[in-house]
Specification:
The protein is of the alpha/beta class and about 325 residues long. It is about 45% helix and about 20% strand. The chain has 13 helices and twelve strands. It has a six-stranded parallel beta sheet with strand order 2-1-3-4-5-11, sandwiched between helices. The protein has a six-stranded mixed beta sheet with strand order 7-6-8-9-10-12, with helices on both faces. β1 (about 40-45), α3 and β2 form a beta-alpha-beta unit. The protein is elongated and about 65 Å long.
């Protein structure tokens, strides 16, 4: 009887040791595998930029549909605000962080810290190294797309004549994003001769539409009768820039693009198409499908949380240009509105 009790005690001690050791070394299973509610931390640019408003709204809708919790912090690529948000996400034990601050240099240290903290990290419209993930369209690819698009139409409509190239973007406050503008120039040059043509950079802070409007007006005044190719970093900037073009009566001298295909751009294109005016200055915008980001991202997030190694670390969307030539192909729901 004593031997039996001894064996039982030894077995109990060994079992306790095994469980204690297992607890010490265990890595928490992803929420997707435990039935726990998935918690996503999102920080990024606020709703003053139409593209990021659409991204956030679609993400919130998709998370709600799945019963996920989305904790959102609007940090506007401010490192101090990002630090506070990151610390909050970490304290909450979020399952994954989505970074919509769109500034590579500012985002990178947080992505590296998340890797050390074993928190999956997904950046939008940047180029993060593994183990982080990247989703979106690269700025150079966007620039190549709009440069080629405008180059083709300048060749067709103006016989290839262009006198001046204007770029409207955040050259001081967000220089990395302006790659979508600077990379448009060589792409434009593959269709028309831009040898010796001046490139004017209009530096406008995001959301400062009045400054963009006035600076474009000043360029138009200083360059009468010149044919101008204009590339704008966002549709909000494009709306200001092409409003200045129309106000100056220079609609037939300017041709260009915006980016993001947000509502203000789509309404402009719709009016042009419905009235048969294909000579408007604002011809197109990069189509990024911002309103579909949530439904596109959530299946990817599910795979990441399940530890699916087949998920590529760089998930790039095509750089399509939407506008007056293909509006109802991309947005058939607008046709009867």
């Amino acid at each position: 009887m004593k031997k039996v009790l001894l064996y039982l005690l030894m077995g109990t001690v060994l079992a306790a040791g095994v469980f204690a050791g297992g607890k010490k070394d265990a890595v928490a299973a992803p929420a997707e595998n435990t039935g726990k509610k998935v918690v996503i931390g999102y920080y990024g640019i606020d709703a003053t930029q139409a593209f990021f408003k659409d991204v956030y709204d679609s993400l919130a809708k998709a998370c709600k549909a799945r019963g996920w919790e989305l904790d959102a912090q609007f940090t506007n690529y401010d490192p101090v605000k990002m630090r506070s948000a990151y610390n909050q996400f970490k304290a909450m034990n979020v399952d994954l962080i989505i970074d919509g601050n769109a500034m590579q240099d500012i985002i990178l240290p947080f992505a590296q810290e998340a890797a050390d903290d074993k928190i999956p990290y997904l950046g939008l419209s940047v180029d993060l190294p593994e183990p982080s993930y990247t989703y979106g369209t690269s700025n150079p690819a966007m620039g190549k797309a709009v440069g080629s698009f405008i180059g083709k139409h300048i060749k067709e409509d103006w016989g290839g004549k262009v006198d001046l190239i204007v770029l409207v973007g955040t050259f001081t406050s967000g220089p990395q994003i302006t790659e979508r503008l600077t990379s448009a120039v060589p792409a434009l040059g593959t269709f028309v001769d831009i040898t010796g043509k001046k490139v004017v950079k209009i530096d406008a802070d995001s959301g400062d539409t009045a400054s963009a409007y006035q600076q474009v007006m000043d360029v138009l005044t200083a360059n009468p009768d010149k044919k101008i190719a204009m590339f704008c970093q966002t549709d909000d900037m494009a709306n200001s820039a092409f409003s200045a073009v129309e106000a100056a009566g220079r609609g037939h001298d300017v041709m260009g693009t915006g980016s993001d295909c947000v509502n203000i751009a789509l309404q402009y294109f719709k009016h042009a198409v419905d009235t048969g005016d294909y000579s408007v200055p604002w011809r197109g915008s990069i189509y990024l499908g911002a309103k579909n980001y949530g439904e596109a991202l959530c299946p990817i997030i599910q795979k990441i949380l399940k530890g699916d190694s087949s998920v590529p670390h760089a998930i790039l969307r095509p750089s399509d240009v939407g506008g007056i030539y293909n509006l109802y192909e991309l947005f058939p729901e607008l046709k009867n509105k």
